[in-house]
Amino acid sequence: MPKREKALGRAMVLRRILRLFKEILRNPFPNPRSTESWLGTLRGKQKPPSNMTNLKSKRSMTVSISRAPKNALEKGFTLVELMIVIVIVGILSAIALPNFLNNTTKAKATEAKTKMSAILKEAHAEYQLDGKVSTAATAAAAQAAQNDSDNFTYAALANGTNIIDVTASANSEAAGGDGSLASAAGGNPIRGCVELNTGKVEISSSFTSTAPTCL
User: Fold this and answer.
1) DSSP 3-state helix, strand, coil percentages of the chain (rounded to 5)?
2) What CA–CA distance (Å, rounded) separates 71 from 61?
3) In what side-by-side order are the strands of the sheet with 190-195?
4) Least enclosed by CB within 10 Å: which of 112, 116, 156, 200?
5) Which residue blocks in 44-154 are alpha helix, DSSP H?
6) Separation of alpha carbons 168 and 150, rounded Å
7) What is the mean pLDDT of each run of 10 residues along the chain (215 residues)?
8) What one-character-per-residue DSSP string does 158-174 give?
């Protein structure tokens, strides 16, 4: 009787070994949990997990991952949020852009008035040397030509007995100038003059069709 029991025990062990061997052939790289479960089966401690059990566990893991909460970056923006951003950008552009262009035009006009002041003072200095208006006008015209730039063209000429006029005309965009500056000028130059006897200098604050008198 003991010999028969031993033979039955050996037969059961061989069956378990064959089962484990078949499972290894099906899945050459089992995970540690399944390996432990099969080792437990070989020792007779627990039953091997079925394929249906493994499939259910995989499905439950996939569902849990898909239900995991997404962070704020993965969620993206809604259409309402995008529309709000577009409206804010439009309002800022409508307010800030004109102010920026206006300040740019003022800065360029200030540069022109600085150069005009230098031309007029040069004319007055030349007049003080020999007292001739023609000499002062020639010096002013030469200085004006040297100050021509992409944005402005300068001109100087004698006006009356002791007056030298200087203009700064904004160049058009076609001539290589600033289109916004030419648009602000409206075809009018910045005007200035100097009274050669007194040295009085007047320069208009902006583009104008009215020349200062310097009297």
Assistant:
1) 60, 10, 30
2) 20
3) 152-158, 163-170, 190-195, 201-203
4) 200
5) 51-66, 72-75, 79-130, 133-146
6) 12
7) 61 69 60 52 51 57 53 68 90 81 87 95 93 93 94 93 94 90 92 94 93 88
8) E-SSSEEEEEEEEPPTT
